Structures
1.
Amino acid sequence: MIKNFFREDLKDFKPYDAEKNEYRIRMDANESYLHFPDELKEKLLEAVKDFALNRYPDPTASDVCRAYADYAKVDFNSLMAGNGSDELIQITSNAFINDGDKVMILSPDFSMYNIYIKLAGGIPIVFDLDEDFKLNAEELIDNVNREEVKLLFISNPNNPTGGVISRETIIKIIEGCNCIVVIDEAYYEFYGKTVIDLIDKYENLIVLRTCSKAMGLAALRVGFLASNKILLNELRKAKPPYNLNAVTQTIAEVVLRETEIINSNIKAILEEREFLLQGLKEIENIKIYPTNSNFVTIKVNDAEKVNKKFLEEGIKVRSFKAGRLKNCLRITVGSRAENEEFLKVLRRV
């Protein structure tokens, strides 16, 4: 039987299910609701109109890395570009994990960490946040060192809670853990605090970033990894040679140079987040978790019932049915009209 050739350790493995269904209002995937102005669209068309589609792309994505280095105020030589930060999580896992190696992840946290760890042959060790999704850093450090884990993944701000760990606490974790520490700053722009400036100070630090959220380039799939030369040398061993296509590199470089548009979009999203939060605070029987991201996570009495009503209205939010997030809904910040429509339906429910 063909199943005899399958990996035994993946027998009960469930692939990540990214829905493709169309909805009237999409507030489930933490994308930007904003579109680029026509002038920028013209620049993008001009940049790609004479493209040499018969040639392989720059394997190091040097031009777009230089653009991101200027944007993020880091050394160009400290960066690696990836096909979304998801690929950079996979590259990190493949570069450092041997079969049976332990890797620490938080619960709740970004679900793709668990998937890539298992695909690399690693063993995920879960450390639970408390009931309010806060982290006990001392206990985490003790667990990391006692379990002798090789990697620690932390998203900051956290996805899916929106909560954050202070810079001081992150530094304490980096210094206290005898492992490689990966800080995933996918939602950095909505928080404003980072440890990317410490990548050369700490030999065990990797920082991840993405252009899918604040920059509005989710369709392109482009992310960046920042670290020191020693770790980057190992990471390059696991990176495919042409992992970021030429069209993506070109478009992303143009957009990254448009800092005024990026900053204006971030400001608009933060204003809409505040509007959404104020509206949620006026509704009874829900718990709102503090957020420093472009989404808000709430807890209701019966998330399945509430989500069913949203789907009937053509509104898609992220609904959690089990585990630490049971009865929670994660709502991506939308436009003013989308936020108003969401709040109107939630009030009725």
Note: The chain is about 35% helix and 15% strand.
2.
Amino acid sequence: GDRSPGMRRLLARQREQREKNTAGRLADTLHAGLRRRLLAVAEDLRDRGPAHRVPGETDVLSAALLVRNQDIDAVGAVLSEAQAGEPALRIRFLGPWPPYSFAEARPQRPTEPAVG
């Protein structure tokens, strides 16, 4: 309280940077564990771009999963366990959606006439 306004602003910025760094390290740890556990129950996982988030939140994982119908509940269980282990984690589980992002589109080459 007895510090100058400039010093208070500097200390506030330093605190914010420490909090951001700590959140980033936690997000990295959560990302690795969550990705590994999801791949154990999914056929494939494709990372997506950053999700829409509230300012001040840190992205952990935004992904599309290719999952067999019978394994959808297992995905939900993994996400529920992650939520229980880290209550600040915000999870959005959308779908099922058609597996378009997992199809490999290869350009068709025109067929050449046989020479002969």
Note: Residues 5-98 form one domain.
3.
Amino acid sequence: MNGLQFEALLPYTLLAAASLVVILLIAFRLSHTVIQITGFILMCAVMVALLQASALLPVAIYPIFQIDGFALLFTGLLVLCVMVVGLFSFIYFEEREENPKEYYILLFLGTLGAAVLSISSHFISLFIGLELLSVSLYALIAYLRNRNNAVEAGIKYLVLAAISSAFLLFGMAMIYMETGSMEFATIAKKLQTSNGHSILFITGTGMMVVAIGFKLALAPFHLWAADVYEGAPTPVTAFIATASKIGVFAVLLRFFQTIGLSNYPMVITVFLVLAVASMIIGNLLALRQQNLKRLLAYSSIAHFGYLLVAFLPGNAAGVQVAVFYLLSYSITLLIAFGVITLLSSREQDTGDLALFRGLFWKKPVTAAVLTLALLSLAGIPLTGGFLAKFFVLATGAQQQLWFPVTVLVITSVIGLYYYLRVISTLFGEAVPTPVKKTLHPFFYLTTYTSLIVMVVLLCWLGTFPNDVIEYINRQLLIR
């Protein structure tokens, strides 16, 4: 490895070092507060390293990694999500008087796995990144093993991840048998010299799509997704809904574009079916949910169905829209799960909608923040969610994908109902809530500040998106 490659890989080296630093801090018996602050500083260092690495791109570390503007965008989004999740984690675990020090080791390892996915250009690095992410999530989901059905949720995720890995490995093996390579670019070249329609390649690609479907909780591979969301600690649920899915979607997007899967009508048909099924099933299942975490789980199924509509064309415009959509969606979900974290008591997470009744009369600012997040998920104007959904519609219409675009419009109207139902609950008659343990005001202040900053950013994305879109375009040109 030369000096240029080392500098380009520095952000990922720092991510790996973050877990080692936390292990040393635990060995010296330092407090949760010290570990939390150190972790936040390390994530800031990773962001600085990413900015410095942007001047060196693109850099290939043959044959397993491709560090370019695409990777920079997704890794930066991952790290931002983890910084926010880390802030939520301190309040969440301090109120439960748990010993959450090892939690940060797992969190940073999971982040490293997702980041490795974003730079993967080879089946080996793809599998290593996916397994590092998955193994970390097993423990994170079941971390509060005596509460919130956490062990059940962890086992269910373990089963889903095992099935996903089995399909993924079998699919990779079949593609390797056909092309004789596991590197994305080499596979693409091999397919150019053949017809690319062999049974081995099509079947292998189909199995990989099934594996990705499990990881993204696309219908009909969404089994137990809501149970995992509900049983996991709320900050972990936020990590699953944002960072883990961003990493998986990044490698799917790179593989799709490098191989040129948009040239295969059968593959496009499969993704079209997945998109339509996810939009319909996700919204219908969310209609009768009485738990906000479960509602957001089914909502995420629908939103990734929307995202696949931008993914289908396989062109640069689709990638740009996908990145913008993920940015808006991640900010929105972090706001929603941040509110749930702040309202959760020591005994249980505030998930049931009945516990949100009358929140506006008790905590008007918190209720307003949650309302804005729900409006963004519904795609109401002046929020980032509205423009993200509009760009997806425009991309689909330009490619004349009229059927999924029509389904998107209809299911968005269905989604509007259950989002407004939650909002109406916030303005209902107030119910008594348990008294919470009081922590140092500084940590509540930082958490509330992060929520307000994200709300402002969400509104900015919904009104002045040009700067963000131009930055995304500049980074995507670095290939």
Note: The mean pLDDT is 87.
4.
Amino acid sequence: MNNQTNQSHKSGFISIIGRPNVGKSTFLNRVIGQKIAIMSDKPQTTRNKIQGVYTKSDSQMIFIDTPGIHKPKHKLGDFMVKTATNALREVDCILFMVNAEEGYGRGDEFIIEKLKGIQTPIFLVINKIDRIHPDQLLQMIEQYKEMVDFKEIVPISALEGNNVDRLLEQIEKYLPEGPQYYPADQVTDHPERFIISEMIREKVLHLTREEIPHSIAVVIDKIERDQGKDMIRVMATIMVERDSQKGIVIGKRGALLKEVGKRSREDIENLLGSKVFLELWVKVQKDWRNKMSNLRDFGFREDDY
């Protein structure tokens, strides 16, 4: 902390909320400077709160990335929406992120209803501005301004990095004086097991077709250091709901699973700073998204929120 100076230290918790696929995880990864949140062009990829910690000499921002709010179709969906709305409580600032390309939609209506009556400062963050004409941006700002009393409206491109620094400066103005909650070199409160499972799940999402995304979970069975070699062994199981999905994830002669393993291993080695031997299995657990016992086994715990 900054005990050497007279300047006060500011810190606080910032919730990022928005429809699926507006770029919340891309933004979080941009701010933190390394990959801690899963990124995919398929909606509803973030299932748990992910805290990213951004530390400067005089401030610390703890970001909470939430599942994109959507109308739930099963117990996992209920869990995801509950997680997102709970994240609005007891934070110091809320970033309501919208996709400039898509504009206002029914999903925004649902979120705006949740935001009404909340006393916390709310920012409107319009993401993906690199993909639209400035005139469209002005129209969007006028449209959203009518709906909620936003403290700030900040257009950004999380992917390109445009205006992200300005957004951080604006957030800092609204943070209370407070301690440094995490060490300066810590970027997330999630254990490594969780981040590794997310990295593997991301690769499956990138490499498979539409019927897979929401039907998979990744369970880390074991992480151990091989003392004989300078290597870490990671054993993980990819859970799917149907036999047909198992075939898709494995691929012809195991080709797709091999590619998932290759791409995941590169990310995991960067995370752990060590050579990694990764073993992957695929297992069918029928209808796991509707079974609370499975949801708990796979790390979705309601009492965490």
Note: The two ends are 28 Å apart (CA to CA).
